Amino acid sequence: MKRQEIKEILKSDAIGTTIKVSGWVRTKRESKNVNFINLNDGSTINNLQIVADVAVFSEELLRKVTTGAALTVTGELVESGGQQAVELIAKEIDVIGEADPDKYPLQPKRHSLEFLRENAHLRYRTNTFSAIARVRHSMIFAVHKFFTDKGFFNIHTPIITASDAEGAGEMFHVTTLDMANPPRNEDGSINYSEDFFGKQTNLTVSGQLEGELAALALSKIYTFGPTFRAENSNTSRHLAEFWMIEPEMAFYDLNDNMDLAEEFLKYLIKYALDNCAEDLKFLSDRQQQEEKDKPQDQRSMELLEKLKFVAVNDFVRLTYTEAINILKNSKPAKKGKFKYTVEGFGTDLQSEHERYLVEKHFKKPVILIDYPANIKAFYMKVNEDSKTVAAMDVLFPQIGEIIGGSQREERLDVLVEKMKAMDIPLKEMDWYLDTRRYGSVPHSGFGLGFERLITFVTGMGNIRDVIPFPRTPKNCEF
Ligand code: 4AD
Ligand code: MG
After folding, report:
1. Is 33 buried (19+), middle (13-18) or exposed (0-12) by CB count in 10 A?
2. Is 390 a residue whose pLDDT tops 80?
3. pTM value surpassing 0.85
């Protein structure tokens, strides 16, 4: 007989038929005459209840049915008197893989997220992490669908590169040299010409620069790849390895870019609401449980309500300079409550400032534009005031910056001057400058941090819980 998935069984109308399922035991409850086994196969957040009559199955077999064990069960699907609509009256139970209850780390109780992070290799077996995995999958699919439906082309940009797209120097080096005894130049520096690629290379921090090359031929492209940042940030919003979606569009100015970013985020959130309802309901209940311990005024909006709110309301758009004025005149600034002071034009906004604007002042997502040139990357278009650049950051409640983007500097002379001023090596970036030499056009793009999106959609408090194997400073397990 063919095995059926629990998701399909729970949807089906197969009462009275004999079916076969396989999965892992979540819990087992023993009563006098029967054992109730909750089986989950990962196809849905919901379990199938298996009813095993102690008169039918040996004590020895039922003893092996413990949390974490893998079973195949054949039986008759019947209407259930309990909480669930249907249950399976077992006729045959095969314990495929035992899970010694004295050793198996996951007990049938609520574990802390910290404990589960240490046991990340098993945490998919919990309701929370299997729900997150399914939502993550849906969001990956929705990203490709959104862009495909709009006529964008997906481009694979390199993972190993010789450039630093963001110019922030936060790169992981890639080398095959013997670090204990590297070849040296006369001045004592390492001779990278003897390295694998004949030059110094690193893991990419962004696919943007290569994405621009494609956009200036295909008009609308997007990348969706892993990016790596050796930034020593131990926060609930930073990973050293994360996934980024970077659309890049020829003939788009900053306004077109903002419109696309807002439409994209709303689409993804609506997609989750429409397609991940059961998992989101579970995650919402989970969050509500956690929130109970917090004081009333620090509790966040219920998850589904929050997602609907973002999906239907217009984002606020304002300039960096306007934001600085709001922040300077804000209550926390006047009372000295910000950890980082807002000095004025030129202050790099911290997450506490971004969250104040979104959560307290506007109570809506915000798009900030026109940042001071010197706190943003070299490739952003210089505005007419020559002090600011056509940058845009999309700020979300709980998350802070979820998207960073800009209109790009398409004028060769302006770009070259800027690169010189910012110490960007011109010779090595000659290939990039060719796009400005030949057929240069106004163009724009942005980067969405995929894990920041998933953090928002799932309502999880820590970005380390929305990627299967988080890499953070001093942590690279599995
Ligand atoms: O603002 P960032 O650095 O922008 C870029 O990399 C541009 N090249 C994007 C572009 O215009 N094509 O990063 C973009 C987004 C951030 O807004 C944030 O959501 C996410 O990437 N991000 C991180 N996510 C997790 N951990 C980190 N360490 C992150 N750094 C950035
Ligand atoms: Mg940024």
Report:
1. exposed
2. yes
3. yes
